[in-house]
Design goal:
The chain is mostly beta strands. About 0% of the residues lie in helices and about 50% in strands. The chain is globular, with a radius of gyration of 18 Å.
Length: about 270
């Protein structure tokens, strides 16, 4: 199994700072490429047998596919503004051009597509936001490409975790094709930390501990989750953002909680309540 941490690098000639493919990850479904582009810089790609979700992490761009033009889009100039992002879904057997209008950081999330899909603009205002957890497990979730939206296999979500809080917690997993109780989904976490010199911690472990890795995560690192539980902790003083990319044989998110920690889902009563 490859190293679960994939580090960003300086931009190459194309502006790419992170490249994860199914082949490099040693699995079957998902990939993630992140680009940091200067104004006027362009990226042109064909999707082939994959579908992609182009998520504007920060900055503005023009994105054009064979049938769709999305001009001057981008809802935030910094990830940590916290507003939901603009994104563009591009189906298989299509093409796209990204043109940066400002300094731009953009994620290209990919997974196997299906015939008949259509490119569409996912507006920031249409992205559902929700709060999950309580106490120091509280975090904000933006559902960018949830299973209720049309796609072949790809699921995309982003999460904001305040410093000192835990996320993807209590621990859960989705590594068995055992519907309706659990779905098999590969997953990538792309982490950003604010301030950027901070860190977070992520653990990936299985019930039998055949996989049990605890990792210090720096700004710009990605973590591969091929199986097992995968909680995250944001260090006090450092807010944590991560982009999640998931896909598997069935496009649904059904997870199994670690039974040792499932009691944490029972929120304690507030003072004065019984």
């Amino acid at each position: 199994m490859p190293n679960l941490v994939v580090k960003s690098r300086e931009p190459d000639a194309e502006g790419n700072v992170l490249a994860i493919t199914p082949e490099s990850a040693g699995w079957s479904y998902i990939g993630l490429h992140v680009y940091r582009l200067k104004p006027g810089q362009k990226v042109n790609k064909r999707t082939g047998s994959a579908e992609v979700c182009l998520t504007l992490l920060q900055g503005k761009a023009n994105i054009v596919t064979s049938r769709l033009q999305c001009l001057n889009i981008g809802s935030r100039m910094s990830i940590f503004e916290g507003t939901p992002p603009d994104s563009v879904y591009v189906p298989m057997n299509d093409e796209y051009e990204i043109e940066a209008l400002t300094d731009l950081e953009i994620a290209v999330c990919s997974a196997p597509g299906k015939a008949g899909g259509e490119a569409h603009f996912i507006r920031s205002a249409d992205v559902q936001a929700e709060m999950r957890g309580y106490g120091n497990m509280l975090r904000r979730v933006h559902n960018i490409l949830p299973e209720q939206q049309e796609a072949g296999s790809l699921l995309v979500v982003e999460v904001f975790t305040p410093g000192g809080h835990w996320s993807s917690y209590p621990p859960h997993k989705h590594d068995r094709d055992r519907l309706p109780h659990e779905s098999y989904l590969e997953e990538i976490y792309y982490h950003r930390v604010n301030p950027g010199h901070g860190f977070a911690l992520q653990r990936v472990y299985t019930d039998d501990r055949s996989l049990d890795e605890a990792m210090a995560v720096a700004n710009g690192d990605a973590v591969l989750v091929p199986k097992g539980y995968h909680p995250v902790s944001a260090a006090p003083g450092y807010d944590l953002y991560y982009l999640n990319v998931m896909a598997g044989p069935v496009r649904t998110w059904k997870f199994h909680n670690d039974p040792d920690h499932e009691w944490l889902f029972r929120q304690p009563a507030k003072e004065g309540e019984q």
